[in-house]
Amino acid sequence: MKRLLAATALALLPFAALAMDADQSRATGDMGLVIERATGSALVIDRSEHAAIGRIEGLGDTSHASMTYSPDERFAYVFARDGGLTKIDMLTQKVVARTMQAGNSIGGAISDDGKLVAVSNYTPGGVKVFDADTLDLVADIPAGGKTIGLADLPGRRFVWTVWDTGHAFMGDFSGETPVVTDLGEVGENPFDAVVTDDAHTYLIGLFGEKGVTSIDLWSEHPKPVKFLKDYGKLEDDMPVYKMPHLQGWAFTEGQFVLPAVGRHELLWVNRETLEEVGRTQVHGQPVFVIAQPASPYVWVNFATPLNGVVQVVDSRTHEVVKTLEPGKAILHMEFAPRGAEVWMSSRDDNKIIVYDTRTFAVKAEIPAQSPSGIFFTARAHQPGL
Amino acid sequence: MKRLLAATALALLPFAALAMDADQSRATGDMGLVIERATGSALVIDRSEHAAIGRIEGLGDTSHASMTYSPDERFAYVFARDGGLTKIDMLTQKVVARTMQAGNSIGGAISDDGKLVAVSNYTPGGVKVFDADTLDLVADIPAGGKTIGLADLPGRRFVWTVWDTGHAFMGDFSGETPVVTDLGEVGENPFDAVVTDDAHTYLIGLFGEKGVTSIDLWSEHPKPVKFLKDYGKLEDDMPVYKMPHLQGWAFTEGQFVLPAVGRHELLWVNRETLEEVGRTQVHGQPVFVIAQPASPYVWVNFATPLNGVVQVVDSRTHEVVKTLEPGKAILHMEFAPRGAEVWMSSRDDNKIIVYDTRTFAVKAEIPAQSPSGIFFTARAHQPGL
Question: Signal sequence span per UniProt (chains A, B) (predicted)?
């Protein structure tokens, strides 16, 4: 009888194991996560199936969250507003590590080799660097203020900027001890910064003063250079409903495309000369301006109260070629990596909408709870994401 | 007793199932295949582990083979010289479909949505299009000659060129019936062609006449334009040991970098004006010129008999900054997608060598049988690859 019980106990194992197997034996190249901003959760999505295939809970305050993936696409690192850093296993759909690393966080990045995860913090400020495997703290870099615009650079390095002191820094974590270099003053109050897709240029947006600052990251002695001295928010303009996300700056056709702060405008800048080459009047205050892969088009969403509209602009003519009304409160857009479709989150319609980028037909709608950021695993292979 | 046996039989199941599980439950973002050119096989590699984790055999004549991945990274489609098209499951490491689709094949591509696989053929010529799921033939486009330079374009389209007739074609497979458009004459004998990373320009190399042909793929009426009228192979130059691969044309810093046919030279061309902006003297006749991601560098390998050397060239100064001797007969190079390392195949040393791109240290060596092309799954997310 005892042997029978033992055998039965063993016999029960396989079903659980096989059930888990069915979920876990899958390629990860078409997976993704959608942040659900009100519920501290993320929806696991399958791009090929146009489907949600799971939900991960317990991510903390996801009202302003971002994330990055390990190089093998197995793990997602979610940076929540409350300072929580959560490591998710995409195959088992489980939280495998979690740390409350600060009081208030703004974003993070993973090193080019996938070994380190860095987080930029508002409270108490500074940058914390963690072992990507265990989430053990490996470096704690104070900054004397709120850290913004953290991005990875090749060679296990990161770059970031400090709102309060106006300085940018490069941190090299390839040796035994971190080497942090002050790149100089970029402006009074840098509010966000982004690295171009070739990791060549660090672009820093300034608050309360005109101009944008650029740093040549390929230079042996990188230093801040101010350009576009007519760009930015001063008193005479419209109120700013939402600071634009600089990660949304599109790089296309030899140009940068910038959301004009506080205006219903896009600015086109020649990538080489850093001179303005055109403006586009758009529906509202731009938030994300994202290039559709393998095309001349950028797609733009807008700040509240005009956030029910998305516009498509041709980077050759600078003209709006399409205006869509996908749903209420379109917070984010993510393209399939070869550009065939774009996924949009409609926060107030509680759904994700998938558009065909060529026909503008709606290919699918997927229910989600107050969805915001959409992140496909293909980001694992893009420097700066 | 009978019940006990039944329970025991059930109990035996899990071990087999779990053993398979161990192999199949893995993320696919850091996987890849290395073509073994003498044995009709491909090595399955794990980039994170710097290891070979399996071998797939029965791929036919792999002496000149290429491949592409499905959008989810689950399947690889291998195009062999003998016309064999083989579909490999990356998780089970098994051949799941195979067809001898022609007598002699040169390469292929997958549609942006992953639904169609197209193959360009020498014998009998033309383009065949297959269902990516089943490998059933869905379209057979005759061409009146050998097809070269086949690449995917957004919107379930492909572009290709015919060596014998000198015409380029665009095929749209998004509707019920394929629509094939003749883009006009590109030159007498186009030997290879490539689409730029933004899918904007189709560049076509010509044999036996000077010049390169460019087609603006974003135009409503794309048409061939000849440029670089001093470029190419005529009688007075050195013998050509190997036609350079145009897939190796690097696009960096607003430039194209071209291997000079039959010369020990790279040519730098301004991407916008299509004018030559510089030349670099290199070690031998360039074969692949590949841009290191997130850097100003291109890496170059060379035709026999000088194929034991790899050089690194700075795209800003056009100067050689490093000369490496990795091994005998370096046939191909593939970068980790964020550029941290480069993998090289040394055919005659029967190994793959992994270099750190920053320190030039050898990080690993992996045994392989006459390795040639190296293909990481991250290619699934790059238009034109």
Answer: 1-19
B113 close contact with A: CB closer than 8 A: yes
* Per-residue pLDDT tens over the stretch B164-209: 999 999 999 999 999 999 999 999 889 889 998 889 999 998 887 8
Structural domains of chain B ordered from first start:
51-227 (2.130.10.10), 241-385 (2.130.10.10)
Q: Residue B332's closest CA among B349, B350, B344?
A: B344
Q: For A101-132, how does the pLDDT look when each residue is reduced to its tens digit (9 = 90+)?
A: 888 888 899 999 999 999 998 888 899 999 99
Residue A5: how many other CB atoms lie within 10 Å: 10
Query: How far is Cα A48 from Cα A45, in angstroms, rounded to an integer?
Result: 9
Task: Report ipTM for this prediction.
Answer: 0.90
Check CB contact under 8 Å for A71 and B377.
no
Structure confidence by residue, pLDDT tens digits, B274-308? 899 999 999 999 999 999 999 999 999 999 999 99
- Closest partner CB to B27 (pick from A13, A74, A338): A74
CB contact under 8 A, B337 and A380: yes
C-alpha to C-alpha distance for B352 and B333, rounded to whole angstroms: 10
Distance CA A264, CA A259 (A): 8
Per-residue pLDDT at A172 = 97
d(CA B164, CA A186): 58
Put simply, the chain A residues between 32 and 91 with a CB less than 8 A from any chain B CB are 47-48, 69-74, 90-91
CB contacts of A382 in chain B (<8 Å) are 337-338
How far is residue A377's CA from residue A73's CA, in Å, rounded to a whole number? 6
Distance from CA of B152 to the nearest CA of A (A): 10
* Candidate from B17, B70, B337 with C-beta closest to A21: B17
- Within 8 A of A3 by CB-CB distance, chain B residues are 4
Give the C-alpha separation, B251 to B289, whole Å.
9
